[in-house]
């Protein structure tokens, strides 16, 4: 039997009510001294046959002068407009786990 190691990359695709899709990709990175960090990239597309486009992690250029309400609507970076902090946390939390620890009901692709 082939034994799998800990998860180092995972992908989740979420379909939104408006038909757009969001793809979250979490991946382990190892720096100096082999300390692990986790990065999460967020991609979007409008239809099944469209190309995936990476979402920016930069806020609106005028974010410092916006009211809280305005910032919440259009000032946050595209990454956080397309995916909630909870969705990002959920996929990032899979990194370092063993495949058997994942809930089979979660729609996750393990690489």
Report on the architecture of this protein:
The protein is an alpha+beta fold and about 110 residues long. It has one domain (about 10-100). About 20% of the residues lie in helices and about 30% in strands. It has three helices and five strands. The chain has helices at about 70-75, 80, 85-90, and strands at about 10-15, 20-30, 35-45, 55, 110. It has a five-stranded antiparallel β-sheet with strand order 4-3-2-1-5, with helices on one face. The longest helix has 8 residues, at about 70-75. The protein is globular. The protein starts with 8 loop residues before the first strand and ends with a strand. The mean pLDDT is about 90.
Main beta sheet:
5 strands, antiparallel
Overall pLDDT metric = 88
Q: What share of the residues does DSSP label as strand, in percent? A: 25-35%
Question: Helical element count?
Answer: 3
- Nearest-angstrom radius of gyration? 16 Å
Number of domains: 1
Task: Give the termini separation.
Answer: 18 Å
Query: Assembly type of the shown chains?
Result: single chain
Structural class: alpha+beta
Total strand count, please?
A: 5
Summarize the amount of helix as a percent range.
10-25%
